[in-house]
Amino acid sequence: MHRTNRTFVRLNVYPDMEPQGKETQSSPKRSNGLGTAGFVTALIALLLFWLPVINWILWTTGFGLSIAGVIKRPRYLAIAGVVISFIALALMLVTIAIPYVAHNVFDFIQRIADMIAGYANA
Q1: Rounded to whole angstroms, how far apart are CA atoms 13 and 113?
Q2: Which residue range(s) make up the domain with 66?
Q3: Prediction pTM value
Q4: Is residue 16 part of a domain?
């Protein structure tokens, strides 16, 4: 069998469309570097919520990067970073509040014990 080489000339009537004679190349996967960095930083902040100073730094960095990443697409990791940042913030505030609440509770119990002891001695 004899194979002939044929040359086709294609007119590009629609310039924004790919010609049908060519194979389309798969476009590279889009990534969101800010969203990914915000997600990772927020996740680290969530894991280290019990360290107040380090957590504030990680939380503000993770929250800021995640908010900046929400603007770009894909947004999935950026939105997850914002949600994790709020969870880390809540845990951090609870961790900070526990000593104050415990001190007030113990102070209240001591006052009641002193009142009961005062009535018993009277």
Answers
A1: 92
A2: 33-116
A3: 0.63
A4: no
